[in-house]
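Lab manual, section 2.4: Encoding a predicted structure.

Procedure: take the sequence of the chain (81 residues), apply the prediction step described in section 2.3, and record the output as structure tokens. A sample record is shown.
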Amino acid sequence: MADKTAILYRMVLPDHVCPFGVRAKQMLTENGYDVDDRLLQTRQEVDEFEAKQRVDTTPLVIIDGQVVGGSDDLERFLQAG
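Recorded output:
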């Protein structure tokens, strides 16, 4: 079986940890993915990331070079898999 890897961009600010990012990481781990956990640690990093990726929210999950989306999208992806 090939190694399953995912890149996860998620918001972890000093005063707020995005619960959807936590959920996405948990789902990936539970489904056997090795997670490259990329934390966005300032509001500026979050805003710049969202603008660059053309998304409105985080987290953002990428599996095998394919943008899966956020935690709800990831849940559907894993159920379909």
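Check your result against the sample. The chain has a mean pLDDT of 95.
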